[in-house]
Amino acid sequence: MKMNDRIEMIIKEVQEKGRVRVSDLSERLGCSEVTIRNDIRRLDAQGVIKKTHGGAEKKDQGLHVQFVPGEYYLHAEYKKKIAERAYEFIGNGDSIMIDDSTTCCYLAQCIKDHTEKELTVVTNSLYVAAELSSAKHIQVHILGGAILSNPASAMGNITAEGAMQYHVNKLFTGINGIDLKVGLTSTDSMHAEVKRIMIGRANETYVLADHTKFGSGNLFTVCTMKDIKCIITDSEISRETISLSKKLQIAMEIVA
């Protein structure tokens, strides 16, 4: 069974039963107990479920938004490192905007875990809002709109109008694709429009994107690279892309 399918089943079992045992999951999913323990440990670290002695249980503190397995867990090791580096760009007292990208979900976890910075966070992501809802050092503003299931976020004209009401120090956003000569691109026109407005409402925009997003052109252009303060990516990015970014004078942070 593939990891994403296994993760989906574990989350489903925990949500439906409230509490599960490693031995039962191992038998049900046809994999070793070591594998199940590693999966539970990973999900516990991500705040999705709570690890217990011999198993796992449903989290019952604060708001909770369940992920649709897939994109969130894809390249997770890169996304975590990118999020950790992005957190370093946030200053105490900053007002920031965070979009609904999966990498930004990891950033929300970093913000929650590090309590030394008091922040105001504006987001259209239900996960980000839920993750930060119980954090006493964070003031959360959530944008309204039509709710999408994957990712769990608000989207549409109301979301765009809501974003227009704010002005923040920094925006942290993910993206479907990056063409260094063209700019940021999206597969969806409304997503592109909301991101475009968010970029316009921030003094600085930081793009959180793993190496797979480069060279990927999509139908809708969000903005040019001149609108971006910095791209934060992982070390698997190609030498050609690094060379081109230097030639075009595009700021890039590469995490090992």
UniProtKB/TrEMBL annotation:
Domain HTH deoR-type: 3-58
Keyword terms: DNA-binding, Transcription, Transcription regulation
PROSITE patterns reported for this sequence: HTH_DEOR_1, HTH_DEOR_2
InterPro entries: AsnC-type_HTH_dom, Carb_Metab_HTH_regulators, DeoR-like_C, DeoR_HTH, NagB/RpiA_transferase-like, Tscrpt_reg_HTH_DeoR_CS, WH-like_DNA-bd_sf, WH_DNA-bd_sf
Top-level taxon: Bacteria
One Pfam family, short name: HTH_DeoR
One Gene Ontology MF term: sequence-specific DNA binding
Coiled coil: none
Protein name: DeoR/GlpR transcriptional regulator
Species this chain originates from: Extibacter muris
